[in-house]
Amino acid sequence: MSKHTTSRHATPPEPVRYVEGFPEHLPGQRHFVCDRLSATLSPTECGVRHGVALGDTRGRHSACRDCPIGRVHAAGLSATREALQAAIQGPGGPRALCVRCGRQSGRLIGQALCVSCYNREREAKEGRNSKGKVPVTYAPLRLRRVGLEMPDGEIRWALFEAQTWLEPLLRGLAAYPGARLHAGQPGDDAPWHEMNETILHAEYRDAEGRPLAMDVEATGNHYAVRYRPALPDELPAPVVAPVSLYDPGFVADWLHHGEEGQTIGEAWRAVGFGCDTCRQGVMQARRRAGVLEVRCTGCGVAEGSDTPPEGPRAALTP
Questions:
Q1: Which domains does the chain have, with CATH numbers?
Q2: Does this model's pTM top 0.85?
Q3: For residues 308 and 254, is the Cβ–Cβ distance under 8 A?
Q4: Cα(first)–Cα(last) distance of the chain, in Å?
């Protein structure tokens, strides 16, 4: 099998050759020979290793961290020449999802929006669509917050202009490479929900019970947020929902019973939940052969649901 290079100017990489690696024990399952590890792996194993490597701060999995094959397999795709080239050329490569609609796209404008979502936003800003009419169904952008844990353990908060709760998750992970989604709240998590009797709403408080205010600073395509004790007579920071981290089984059941689940088609689409296993990916869902399948874009953990929670679930196979 040919070596794969990560140079942007090198000869296009050779596609991975898949074989039935262990026909006696795992009939029908695809495997390939990994040159970096000198091992035979399944695409799922490769994708999981890549997800682990992204969160490794000690360099123990460095061979998998920047591997385009791992990046492709983590997205649930076959390592074709085109997919590998896309993985080499751009951040996220074939894993690139439109941060707004959650669909996989071969072309992202500004490394964020698919052509359709970009056009809808442009029409809203111009006040007219392609037919010259005022857009009436476009949901305006709002500032939405995401919590992120840096590789050194530091917790940061960021605000992004977004249309959905999925958008700040994907934008945050892209803006802070190596970070993990953080589901906590600012200050001391225990008293954050206490009511302020003066302003009659919940507020964040530190470990000493002092209300927290927030400072906001523009940074690139978002706003960095810092929480601090509020000054006398200063309004406390608004309380917002934390990042939602769940396992694929919960998300599959939630979609199975919710309205959003009825909009899931045969193509993978990301939804607004982070993965509580790796915290470096979001959940994708699709409906295939009547089964609602859910997987993480980061570590590949997956599950499907075609029955209510009390019934059996159909496991997603590679």
A1: 19-95 (no CATH), 97-140 (no CATH), 143-242 (no CATH), 245-305 (2.20.25)
A2: no
A3: no
A4: 22
